[in-house]
């Protein structure tokens, strides 16, 4: 009994068969718009989500501001840790009579904030950048209040202290504006 040869197999090229491709994509649930108006090219991208949706549109100069803040916070922290008496004399134009441990603790707190700034500089996550800016804004507001109360208690105002207060207000406004602009929702095109 001779085996009858089978005819050659005909493969269906589903890549070229548009109706077949459309049916397959419809069954998988890809190719159409989702609730957000996005069109997914594959089931994997639909399941994982579109990473462009999470990309942060940063305000102009945000990274430069965070770098500037990180450098200034680090420098002030090191000055407060190494030269606490001189830092006090520059701001209040009088010699410090109490121990310098409080200024060194201030330097340690500033160093901790500077580490947050350095971390905020290298991250791409919007929430971390927002918390970095918010912690910086809280610092500027608290320092403004504490310095103002101290100057009122001392009963005199030095030029360096006025410059410090004005710089804290300016830095607070800049930081809050970046925080506000980063928190706004981008316009859909």
From TrEMBL:
Keyword presence, Aminoacyl-tRNA synthetase: no
Domain of life: Eukaryota
Membrane topology listed for this record: Multi-pass membrane protein
Keywords for this protein: Membrane, Phosphoprotein, Transmembrane, Transmembrane helix
InterPro entries for this protein: TP53I11
Main location, first listed in the record: membrane
GO terms under cellular component: membrane
Transmembrane spans: 62-83, 103-121, 133-154, 160-180
Compartments, as annotated in UniProt: Membrane
Protein name: Tumor protein p53-inducible protein 11
Organism expressing this protein natively: Chanos chanos (Milkfish)
């Amino acid at each position: 009994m001779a085996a009858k040869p089978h005819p050659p197999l005909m493969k269906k090229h589903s890549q070229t068969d548009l109706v077949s491709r459309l049916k397959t994509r419809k069954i998988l649930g890809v190719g159409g718009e989702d609730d957000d108006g996005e069109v997914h090219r594959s089931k994997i991208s639909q399941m994982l989500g579109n990473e462009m949706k999470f990309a942060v549109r940063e305000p102009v100069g945000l990274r430069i501001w965070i770098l500037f803040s990180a450098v200034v916070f680090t420098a002030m922290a090191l000055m407060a840790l190494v030269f606490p008496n001189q830092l006090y004399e520059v701001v209040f134009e009088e010699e410090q009579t109490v121990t310098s441990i409080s200024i060194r603790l201030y330097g340690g707190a500033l160093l901790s904030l500077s580490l947050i700034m350095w971390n905020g500089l290298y991250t791409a996550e919007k929430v971390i950048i927002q918390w970095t800016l918010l912690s910086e804004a809280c610092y500027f507001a608290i320092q403004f209040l504490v310095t103002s109360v101290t100057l009122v208690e001392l009963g005199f105002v030095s030029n360096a202290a006025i410059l410090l207060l004005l710089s804290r207000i300016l830095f607070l406004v800049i930081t809050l504006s970046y925080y506000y602009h980063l928190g706004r929702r981008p316009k859909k095109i």
